[in-house]
Amino acid sequence: MAHSISRTVRPWYTSRRGIVLLFLACLALYLSIQTPSNGGPWRNDHEKSVYAELSGRSVTLHNIRNFRHDDSQPVDGKEYFSKTWNLDEIERIWFGLSHFGPYGLAHSFLSMEFSNGEYLGISIEARMRPGQDYRPLMGLFRRYSKIYVAATEQDVIGVRSHQRGEKVLLYPVSGTREDAERFFLALINDANSVYQTPEFYNTILDNCLTNLIKHGVRMSEVSAADIRVLLPGHTDRLTYALGITPDDITFESARQRALIDPTLGGIDHPDFSAIIRCGWSDYSSLNFPACR
Q1: What is the CA radius of gyration of the chain?
Q2: Angle between helices 177-196 and 208-215 (to 10 degrees)
Q3: Contact at 8 Å (CB) between 247 and 253?
Q4: pLDDT tens-digit profile of 137-177?
Q5: pTM for this one?
Q6: Strands (DSSP E) along the chain, which ranges?
Q7: pLDDT reported for residue 59
Q8: How crowded is the C-beta side of 265, counted as CA atoms within 13 Å?
């Protein structure tokens, strides 16, 4: 006698594959309805985005920040100003890495060095609203708009190294003066684009490191799955491997030279920029003056 076999068919949304498909569909819908914005209100340190005006060989940056702040609250007030440089004054680029948490959590930034002894910090950041906290994972899912910050080194570096007590590393970027100029122009063009048309911030794919690699035409050599990209605290290993930062010494020696020592001088010391580069004072390829 034949026996009939009864089989229960589960609804598609209870199967493992169905759950995954439902999650992906919801994620796609979520991402599709998100819209970046330049409209406030914004946190104190993200109120104004930098933008540039070019005239021949001169470039004027507006909304350069000079804060002494701790997270969202200014400590000694806040100041924005404008400044004009001639492109011929660009000397070199510095790559910075500030470790703000465990497990390789870090923020990368850049600093432009000019031949007149001035420096300009540049940082690509997730734009925060009042009371909002930064979550690296959320930065992958269109949670934050992007902002370009141009600031004094006392602001973009000193607040991290001296006020917050973060471990901050600062490396000279290898290349010619012309390379530095081309990269600077590419950066300010990106900044102007974001100033006019808002974009989303991405923790991994759109930060100072990826822009440094992209504009250096080295992106094809980097995998998004590289642990040195996924964990920003290890990105100086990537810049070393690519020869973006000095690779004619051991990595350990380069990292030791790059480490900023906040005990050598306060955040408002008149020679702040020289002091935070003391580790490179006897690096022959750089020809940087010795620290006093």
Answers
A1: 23
A2: 120
A3: no
A4: 787 788 889 999 999 999 999 999 998 999 999 999 988 99
A5: 0.82
A6: 51-55, 58-65, 69-70, 73-74, 80-86, 90-99, 106-114, 119-127, 145-151, 167-172
A7: 97
A8: 14
Beta bridge partners of 97: 108, 169
pLDDT digit string (tens) for 42-101? 988 899 999 999 999 999 999 999 987 655 555 555 689 999 999 999 999 999 999 988
The tokens for 132 are: 């909002």
Do residues 259 and 169 make contact, with C-beta atoms less than 8 angstroms apart?
yes
**Residue-level pLDDT at 141:** 80
Do residues 83 and 108 make contact, with C-beta atoms less than 8 angstroms apart? no
Rounded to the nearest integer, the mean pLDDT of the chain is 82
Q: How far is CA 214 from the centre of its chain?
A: 13
In the DSSP assignment, the letter for residue 47 is S
110 vs 151: CA distance, rounded Å: 10
Residue 70 tokens, joined = 């701790």
Asked if 246 and 174 count as a contact pair (C-beta separation under 8 A), the reply is yes
